[in-house]
Amino acid sequence: MVAHAQTVLARARLGNNTEDIETIRSGLYAGQIAIMDGYDVLGLPAMGHGHGGVHKLFDISRLVGLTGGPRGIAYAESERSFVFDDINIPNVLWFTDEVGTPKSPRLVTRLGDDPVAVEALNYIPRGSAFYPDRLAQVTFTTFFTETIDIMRLDGTVEAQIIPDDEIQAHGFGGFSFVGPNRLLIGTYDKLLYETDLSGHVVAGPIAVEGRPDSLEGVGSTVDGRIMAASYTEGKLRYFDHNLNRLPGADQDFKIGIGLSRPLGPGFDSDTGELLFKDEISSFPDILLFSVPQSLGSKTLVKNLADDGYDFSRLRPGMAYLPDEHRIAVPARNPGAMLLYDNAGVLEDNVDLSAFPTSPLVCDYLPSFAQFAIMFNGFAHFGQVSFVTRTGALVRTIDLRPLGVFFCSFAAFDPSDPSGGRLLVIDPFNDAIVVDLDGALLYRFEYRGPLNIPFGSFLVTSITSGPYAGAFATVQGDNSEVVIFTLP
């Protein structure tokens, strides 16, 4: 059975996802900095300063074939076209006109082995003595050495630059040609380097202040100033040509409440607030936040690393136990369900170490006092295991015959004859609703109606407050929460 007409009640981007920046020297947006942030291409005046100049140029939701938010953006001035790439499809470039209307994608022909992933893009201007009117792209080889491929606009790679080992040790996602004989590189631990045209370090590292996240966007203005933007901060920082800071020229483009790629959501029925984990802003720590249904603020509940659980030990999902007034956070090494009170005090621990792998996605069924869990690993994806409050397996339902594999779910409607229903969200396929025996009740296409072009992962039911009876899900690459009702 196919259902239709789900309704969006609210949506908001909670934070930035800045992947790349590009200086536009000609055309419709001449004199602006294009910023690839989530699914949006933002514009800032290159010579501006302070907050208020940011505006949306267009979004990339019409680009067919992308698997998520692009990792690179370039503006090919000879064609008056924007160019994008996809980390999961390294040998394709996507083109649009100046207002985001898709053009035909182009295949990339490499010099050697195909990369396993790609990152930043940059256009080398027509007047350059170094490969004019070309694209440069950061790539990852099978041995996780990063290279910079120089290619024609038709996708034919003509040269490859391998930066020094000093830079490789940090890893880098930000790159730009800053001419006439310099390359600019931003590392994953927020260092700024300049190299010669062969990739040898000539300046840096310069440690960029602020949150300890990745320096994804780097570039230069027409007057020679250097710019850098990290993944989460929503701030364009300026330097002179010698890499001395120019803080008075900085520009803000902060989005939302400062939660980038939030994990969750869960829902606290006692406070009526959504729960999210932030694994980016204080990496490797993970912070637990509560967010009201207005999506306009956040409150720190707990730094989970204070209890010895950081990025290496925590899993994406989350649940709430209304009968115990506790937040459930899945963990690994060993597998467990950590139980926190609403003040962030770790009160209990459900031992799941007897299971062959750790819990990945979870919810809680108060009428049964059981957890619903999808365990990590290929052999367990698409299966929901019901586990008692003390950690004993009750039974497992297999959703793979329904076309579900990598999924998340939210329990609701305990009045169903089976004891409840599950809304199952698959980022690659339709959503489905099943009963607790795994019987399909109906399925629906959700990405178009909810304007979630690349799907979502993790969902929760809202059981109190203004949106009681609705659901919330998150688009990670766009840090966007969507609150919606079922068909």
Automatic annotation (TrEMBL):
Q: Which domain of life is it from?
A: Bacteria
Record-given protein name? Uncharacterized protein
Q: Which organism is it from?
A: Fimbriimonas ginsengisoli
